Every structure is written in structure tokens, then in C-alpha cells.
Amino acid sequence: MNAFKCLVIIISLLFHQVYAEDKLTCDEMKGHVQSVCKKAITGDADAMYDLGLMYDTGEGQPGNKPNIKEAIKWYTKAAGEYEASAGPSKYQNVGT
Questions:
Q1: Cα 50 from Cα 37, distance rounded (Å)
Q2: pLDDT at 1 over 50
Q3: Which of 2, 31, 42, 55 is buried most deeply by CB count within 10 Å?
Q4: How far apart are the two ends of the chain, measured CA to CA in Å?
Q5: In total, how many domains does the chain have?
Q6: Strands, DSSP E only, in the chain?
Q7: What is the C-alpha to C-alpha distance for residues 12 and 66, in angstroms, rounded to an integer?
């Protein structure tokens, strides 16, 4: 994951104090948010990150309230997918 996305995640987690109790399923979401959600569920790392950001900002959520718990869940899943897709480092065996 690039440095900018990491910075966004860290800043969001440090400064958000609002938690939403309501959570929608992908089928209950509308438009762009629904399509991002469906892509995220299929394992698309970029969509996972975007969905985390949407939960983080409240986009497409009831009352546009952020849901930090869901945001962290999707950020974490995205990071795992990015790491898995990166494969072994080309420097892994350097110096051995």
C-alpha cells in the first residue's frame, strides 16, 4: 500500500471520534457505494480500501455517519490483499 493511503488511514483513525451504530449490507447500499462494496467482497484490494474510506467518511451510510469499526475492518483486509499480491521481496535473500 502506498504511503499516501497509509497516511490517510492513520489520520482518519487518530481524528475520528464518531461511530455509527447502523450498518448496511451491500444490497441495501445505493449506486457507486453498492458497486464498490460488491467488488470488495470479491477480493478486490482497491475496492476494499475504497469501501474502508467510505465507511470512514460516512459516505453512503445512514445519516452519513462514519463507522470506524467497519472502516478498520476493510482497511485491514485491503492491506492483507496488497501484501499478498506483492509477493516475495526481491531483496528477501540479499546478504544470505
A1: 9
A2: yes
A3: 55
A4: 27
A5: 1
A6: none
A7: 10
